[in-house]
Design the sequence.
């Protein structure tokens, strides 16, 4: 079974803080993705990575950065958190060439005060 | 532009009352349509992948079908535990592994 884990289920931070969200997958997947999910807007892609040290911007990268130093780990960084970044953050991974099915982690509910 | 539209936004069913959820898509050259189930406060759980018109897949009370413009998720004799939000997504037109998601259908099944 594919397993994707995220470092926290719930996180509360203050405006201006630097926030790290961590994601780890155990299936040796090349691809990893970060989404945010907001009511009425669905899942929106922030960043994705095809390989170690590689990253590409998704649809809403502003205010975020990412890091992928190891194949199994993909981190999302909020350099200076703002209230409009309060959201559910979802990490996913996939193995290209085998249906590209993305498998999701449990999500991190981030609240920025 | 690639687009996915799901309808209805919300659906309330009595236990045992069969129905269908719709996913309409616009993409140049479909390379995969995905259905996920999402429970409140949790990550999406993969259900099905469909690749070509006419393809069908089944799992318990769920059956997914695909045409050239839309996909249906048929729920036969639903139970309260089928209550969840069902998400549809397609792979983008270009050589990319990105998925474009619809906003989902929130299903509630009452006993």
Sequence:
């Amino acid at each position: 079974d594919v397993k994707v884990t995220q470092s926290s289920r719930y996180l509360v931070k203050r405006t201006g803080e630097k926030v790290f969200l961590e994601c780890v997958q155990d299936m040796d997947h090349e691809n990893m993705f970060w989404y945010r999910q907001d009511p009425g807007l669905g899942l929106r892609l922030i960043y994705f990575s095809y390989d170690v040290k590689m990253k590409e911007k998704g649809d809403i990268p502003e205010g975020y950065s990412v890091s992928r130093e190891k194949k199994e780990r993909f981190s999302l960084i909020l350099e200076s958190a703002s209230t409009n970044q309060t959201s559910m953050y979802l990490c996913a991974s996939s193995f290209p060439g085998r249906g590209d099915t993305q498998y999701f982690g449990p999500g991190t509910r981030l609240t920025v005060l | 532009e690639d687009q996915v539209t799901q309808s209805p936004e919300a659906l309330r069913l009595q236990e045992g009352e069969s129905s269908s959820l719709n996913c309409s898509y616009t993409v140049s050259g479909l390379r995969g349509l995905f259905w996920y189930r999402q429970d409140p406060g949790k990550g999406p759980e993969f259900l099905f992948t469909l690749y070509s018109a006419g393809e069908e897949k089944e799992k318990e009370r769920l059956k997914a079908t695909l045409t050239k413009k839309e996909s249906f998720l048929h729920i036969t004799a639903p139970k309260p535990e089928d209550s969840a939000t069902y998400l549809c997504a397609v792979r983008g037109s270009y050589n990319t592994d990105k998925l474009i998601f619809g906003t989902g259908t929130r299903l509630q099944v009452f006993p």
